[in-house]
Design brief:
Helices cover about 25% and strands about 25% of the residues. The chain has eight helices and 16 strands. The protein folds into two domains: about 200 residues, 3-Layer(aba) Sandwich (Rossmann fold); about 110 residues, Formyl transferase, C-terminal domain (Methionyl-tRNA Fmet Formyltransferase, Chain A, domain 2). The strands form three sheets. It has a seven-stranded mixed sheet with strand order 5-2-1-6-7-8-9. Strands 10, 11, 12, 13, 14, 15 and 16 form a seven-stranded antiparallel sheet that branches. The protein has a two-stranded antiparallel sheet with strand order 3-4. Helix 1 packs parallel to helix 2, helix 1 runs parallel beside helix 6 and helix 5 runs antiparallel to helix 7. The protein is elongated, with a radius of gyration of 23 Å. The chain is α+β, with helices and mostly antiparallel strands.
């Protein structure tokens, strides 16, 4: 039997677990798993391990948790493992000394059809921009972010009802299949790479997916069309979540995260951004084209709830404002 490649896997969140599981289930020789250090979480601030670490320990895989990826002790530990290939799924940027170590290279899984949507948040930005299709790419890491030679790609549809969480979960499974396919191809040597500059179409170059910060998530009720507002909200749902401010008659601001809405086109005589509610069953926000019906939301410090649940515990009327 041919000697199996020695694989080091880098990953942290749940998205990466499916890919590690796929490699494990296919019998690949995973010599170590690298993930983020344990972090305090919850009200008790107890140390919590990453999803990847939890899976790796269940499968008795060696785990490395470097505080600093540039640390020489970590480099020595990694070099001693003598990896043939490294796989990176949902992990932070690797220093050159790390990604150039294996003689077969280091492969990254990216949740877009590169070169489109390079960056930290490709799933969110694809939905926000109203794309009907996206996909996943495996490529060799080089010195520039998300620009390396493409190994394989697979496409996936974005359905009208998809939010970022739904698409994330579907792509997580498709990505695991692509990682396993890529690992088999590299181990056998049966693959060809494609330079990303061969895939530019004149539009792709302007589609980027930078990291999304809290201030990017404020809902621009009167600066976008209804379809754009709906894409914005579902593209940020459930995380990091689009938000707005509910303002009481005495001027107190209450932050609301909005997870689900319905967009209703209709003529009305109200100015844009007017809050309409019966205080029991509905809360709508007016736009130039009609109404945005808020269906699921979360008041700061409270749990996620339907609009009916919210109104039962937080009585408001049309003297309140939205911002």
């Amino acid at each position: 039997m041919a000697k199996r490649d020695r694989i080091v896997f880098f990953g942290t969140p749940e998205f990466a677990v499916a890919s590690l599981k796929a490699l494990f289930d296919e019998g690949f020789n995973i010599v170590a798993v690298v993930t983020a250090p344990d972090k305090p979480a919850g009200r008790g601030k107890k140390l919590q391990s990453s999803a990847i670490k939890q899976f790796a320990l269940r499968k008795q895989l060696p785990v490395l948790q470097p505080e600093n990826l540039k640390c020489q002790d970590f480099h020595k530990e990694l070099k001693a493992l003598n990896p043939d290939i490294q796989f990176v799924v949902a992990f932070r940027m690797l220093p050159k000394q790390v990604w150039q170590l294996p003689h077969k290279g280091t492969v990254n899984l990216h949740a877009s059809l590169l070169p489109a949507y390079r960056g930290a948040a490709p799933i969110n930005h694809a939905i926000i921009n109203g794309e009907k299709e996206t996909g996943l790419t495996t490529f060799f890491i080089n010195e520039n972010i998300d620009t390396g030679q493409i190994i394989f790609q697979t496409k996936t549809q974005i359905h009208p009802e998809d939010n970022a969480g739904m698409l994330h979960d579907r792509m997580m499974l498709q990505g695991s299949e692509l990682i396993a396919k890529t690992a088999k191809a590299i181990e056998s040597g049966n693959y060809k790479t494609i330079p990303q500059n061969e895939l530019y179409d004149g539009v792709t170059e302007n589609k980027m997916a930078p990291k999304i910060f809290r201030e990017d998530c404020h809902i621009p009720w009167c600066r976008k069309k209804m379809v754009q507002l709906r894409n914005f909200i579902r593209g940020l749902s459930p995380y990091p979540a689009a938000h707005t401010f509910l303002i009481s008659p005495d001027g107190k601001k209450n932050q609301l995260k909005i997870f689900e809405i319905a967009a209703i086109k209709d003529k009305h005589h109200y100015s844009c951004g007017k809050l309409l509610t019966d205080g029991k069953k509905y809360m709508d926000i007016t736009t130039a084209e009609g109404y945005i019906q808020i269906l699921e939301l979360q008041l700061s410090g409270r749990k996620k709830m339907t609009i009916q649940e919210f109104l039962r515990g937080f009585p408001i009327d049309e003297n309140w404002k939205i911002e």
